[in-house]
Amino acid sequence: MSGHDPLVMCLCEITRLLWRLLLPLLLLCSLLVALLLLLLLAVRLVLQSFRKALRARDGRPAVAFFHPYCHAGGGGERVLWCAVRALQNRYPDVNFVVYTGDQGVTGQQILAGAQQRFNIVLPRPVQFVFLKHRLLVEPSLFPHFTLLGQSVGSIFLGWEALTSFVPDVYVDSMGYAFTLPLFRYLGGCSVASYVHYPTISTDMLAVVRERNPRFNNPDFVSNSLFLSAVKLLYYCLFALLYGMAGSCSHLVMVNSSWTLDHILSLWRCPGRTSVVYPPCDVRAFLDVPLEEDGDRKCHSVVSVGQFRPEKDHRLQIRVFKKVLDRRREGLSGREAVKLVLVGGCRNQEDEDRVRLLRGLCQELGVADRVEFKLNVPFEELKREMEEATIGLHTMRNEHFGIGVVECMAAGKVILAHKSGGPQLDIVVPFEGGQTGFLADDEDGYADAIERILALPPAGRLNIRRNARQSVARFSDQEFEACFLAAMEPLMGTLRR
Question: At 128, is the secondary structure helix, strand, or coil?
């Protein structure tokens, strides 16, 4: 007997043992899968019975919006309240519910905040479901693998929402795509989504692949080939899961051409996807005087946007410092310039970010020329717009840019980032005329501000007039018409 015979016999015995265990393992797996399916079916039946009981009690169907930060003051919240208002006007026999994670406020205070910040009054009250575990979607809870952590957290938060109230139609209005299969397959709801910004995009994949440092791709990752490869694999797997979750939506609305391209590449449901530009309060700014500004002693550069890292307020402050330095080196007697940062703070993290921005102003020696306006009411926002000469926007790949549209409606000369919605949809020629300026780096922004301030007042006025006329397509009325048309197939199911 050769020396290899015992090894061969041992391998044969192991093979026979594994073969004998294969059938029991397959049976066990099949049993576990069957039990899981039965459990999910039981949960679905229970939740549907809850929905039928609610409808029998109220006598009317219900449409619910998932918006955990509905008391914030950003563009996404304006979309929410305009959408609810439009549906309430069209469907008076339907109940409307908002899932929110805001604590320490009442429903009346939330609606009062919407009126104060956005000048929006609903035809009738809505029902609020106050979720207790919004912390699960806070980025601060996940210092690493933030996208995955927030997405998993949104599933648990969505489960809390679903078990608190089961609607007939569910609308994710804040971008939590992983809640869509939960409400569709367990809740038995018709589901729709309004996508402001894809959770992950091909641009994000490109940043990691090319090892470019960004606010969401720190230097220690971009400088390491291994860490970049690991992060790229993580992003690709997450993009696959994100696409599967998003494709569960019966109806998809996106807010810009840029978002449309990314959602089509990830969710792959072109027949159910349409562009619905967000509502911008164009009409509220039309009474801002549109006249030559040559007699101004001080030109104001105003930035409107929440204090989030991607808005890149640090770049705005550095650009402003560069502009001041250039003007000091130039001729004396030139008009003064100031920077006004207007925006909302959602939480302590945003407030800490503002504190750091104030510190940067001190460090650069421009604190006396930079003003911070936090969580201001609508009338104060409008007043700052009226006094401004330039509207400044610096977010790379901004999904749309409501603040950009508002500045143009107010007759300001807009200077926006040369990417995303501003480049593709907003700061585009109108009837052959210029509507604003675009830039993509610090020097480009400083050069553009200098060019704008050097224009004769009549030249600025012509650009401002073109800009105001071009943004009529982003009005509340246009949004409501397009939103209602998109929602009609789902709302039609409520009549059955």
Answer: strand
CA angle 345, 115, 107 (to 5 degrees): 80
The 10s digit of each residue's pLDDT in 411-451 is 999 999 999 999 999 999 999 999 999 999 999 999 999 99
Mean pLDDT of the chain: 89
| Region of 268 on the Ramachandran plot (φ > 0 left; ψ -120 to 50 alpha; else beta) | left
Instruction: Give DSSP secondary structure letters for 143-200.
Output: SSSHHHHHHHHHHHHHHHHHHH---SEEEE-S--GGGHHIIIIIS--EEEEEESS-SS
Q: Are strands 413-417 and 388-392 parallel, antiparallel or unpaired?
A: parallel
Interacting residues of 201 by C-beta distance below 8 A, sequence separation 6+: 262, 266, 397
CA dihedral over 401, 174, 92, 116, signed as positive or negative: negative
| Structure tokens given for 388 | 């401004």
pLDDT tens readout for residues 338-351: 999 998 887 888 89
Q: What pLDDT shows up at residue 68?
A: 96
Q: What is the pLDDT of residue 1?
A: 47
Closest by CA position to 370, among listed 321, 403, 406, 334: 321
- CA angle, corner 415, sides to 412 and 416, nearest 5? 125
227 sits in which H/E element: helix 225-246
Q: Does the pLDDT at position 478 exceed 60?
A: yes
Give the Cβ contact number of residue 253 at 10 Å.
Answer: 28
Residue from 407, 317, 333 nearest 365 by CA: 317
Q: One-letter amino acid identity for 177?
A: A
| Angle made by CA atoms 234, 266, 262, in degrees to the nearest 5 | 105
Count of residues for the chain? 496
